[in-house]
Design a protein that fits this description.
Length: 171
């Protein structure tokens, strides 16, 4: 019984058990400090993951374009949608090759927007080249770098705006 009484605090009128306000404030302060350190690290890791996914998507599109060109023999596709699957899961055709997923075929994935432009150098209706830009939907939040690639498959990056063929390749 005496051990139980020693754990209780006397506060003038009554005997109470619990934490003081100072103890609770210290615990809250520690939690806030930990959160202030952890949240920026979490945001940076999410940006890095989105950028890695955008680079992987650029590589997937370049690979799909090479397969499309060699399979159908009509140059590169006119749109990203032509590389996507057929509605309802039909057979692969030149207008629905099924080489990339439907989300990427819509040009939006992992916080990045993809802009595809075919290039018909000869005016014969056959796309001999293409360009692809990947831009973060919300710069600084979904990604910090902009990416560019073309039929060469070299992916280039820039931090200040849309990347171009003259920008340095990623490492």
């Amino acid at each position: 019984m005496n051990a139980q009484k020693t754990r209780l605090r006397r506060t003038g009128w009554t005997t109470q058990a619990g934490f003081s306000l100072i103890e609770l404030l210290i615990v809250v302060a520690i939690i806030l400090i930990i959160a202030a350190i952890a949240i920026p690290n979490f945001l940076r890791s999410r940006i890095a993951a989105n950028e890695s996914a955008a680079v992987a998507s650029c590589r997937n599109i370049v690979t799909a374009q090479v397969v499309y060109s060699s399979t159908y023999g009509i140059g590169y596709s006119d749109t990203l949608a032509e590389l996507g699957p057929a509605p309802g899961g039909g057979p692969a055709t030149a207008s629905n090759a099924g080489l990339i997923d439907d989300v990427l075929a819509d040009g939006l994935k992992h916080g990045y927007k993809f802009f595809y432009a075919p290039v018909d150098n000869n005016g014969d209706g056959i796309n001999e080249a293409f360009t692809l830009n990947a831009e973060p939907l919300n710069p600084g939040f979904t990604g910090e770098r902009y990416f560019f690639t073309d039929q060469s498959g070299v992916i280039r990056a820039r931090r200040t705006g849309p990347a171009e063929a003259s920008d340095p390749p990623i490492g």
